[in-house]
Every structure is written in structure tokens, then in C-alpha cells.
Sequence to fold (226 residues):
Amino acid sequence: NAGVMQNPRHLVRRRGQEARLRCSPMKGHSHVYWYRQLPEEGLKFMVYLQKENIIDESGMPKERFSAEFPKEGPSILRIQQVVRGDSAAYFCASSPEKVLYFGPGTRLTVL
Amino acid sequence: AQSVTQLGSHVSVSEGALVLLRCNYSSSVPPYLFWYVQYPNQGLQLLLKYTTGATLVKGINGFEAEFKKSETSFHLTKPSAHMSDAAEYFCAVSEGGSTLGRLYFGRGTQLTVWP
Fold:
């Protein structure tokens, strides 16, 4: 049973470009969470999605960030017009119940 | 509101020595508590969790933690450190129920193990 998969593992963008981060949850998991880890900080919750629904996006920045989890395919975290402050590790997690399983993360570097 | 404080951003121990990583939390409801470990350039791996029941929880790799409600603590221990334990450790809390997946993480403790 494959774990949570994220791609790309590393992503480099110039300021103003768009970043798309993908997450495939573990088989049978229909809940996906996105977290962001800034340098020397713990993880911060961004958004919680179920298939075709955003359940809780209270941790998402108000502008430039969006997330989706379509009926088919991976969950996507999209960052438009990236800025240097968006440089971070972005982790996806999926859950059956009572515990989160994290993916390996996507490390975004904005030049 | 939930929050987590990990005392000591860096802890160093000798191989074979006791490992103690401290975690205190605040929660307005009975908490669910977790310890995760992160190796360099990898995702987080669950070490152990407390949801209900026995307050002493055993996890993988010989780690255990004790939930002490009166002290609002969930310290992580291991009797004898191994070189492979060197990593960053994160304590996290959630309210459980429908908000189970919304974890509040501490800032992490980097564990170094000396030979």
C-alpha cells in the first residue's frame, strides 16, 4: 500500500510565476490536508479537503493560494504570482481516522 | 484555542543516554496528542499518539510518552538513545472529532546523538 505521494519533490519558481503542487492520498483515504513548514518553524495548517469539497480553509492566505481535490486525480495546491516569502516545504497528509499520514513534501524555492 | 510549546529547540545526548523531549500544550477540550519525527528532507512519521485510555503511550523505535493532564504535558522519552534517533521531533495537538486533522504543531526539537 503506497503512502501519501507528492510531486514534484522540489520546485523552483521565479517571482510572479505560478506553482502547482500535487498530492495523491493513501489508497482509501478521502480526506486531504495541506500544511506549510517555514524555515525553523513547525507545520502550520492550511486547508482540509474531501473529494470535491473544501471543508476548512481557515489557514489559507486570503490571496494567491487555492486548493482543490477533484473527484478524479490528485489534490492540487496552487500558488499564483509567487513571492520569496512563499519559499517553504509544503506537506500533504491524508487520514482514515484519528491519525494523519504525511507525504514527503514539496520544497518550493522562489528566486 | 490550541497551542504547543516544545522546550528546547536543540537537545544533545550521548549514545545510550536517556532522551527526554518536552512538550506542553494548551487546549480548551480534551486533547488528542501526537509526536512526529522528521528526518532530513523527508516527511513526518508518526511516533505515537494519545487519544483516550491509558496515559502512558508506547510508540515505534522504543519511544514512549505520558499524558499528564494536571501538568498539560506530553513529554517524549526513550531510555537509551541510538545514533539513528538523530532527527527533528514535533509535538502536536488536536481537538479530535471533526477537527481531528487540524493539528497544531510545536516549533520542533532537533535531537543530536553523540557517539
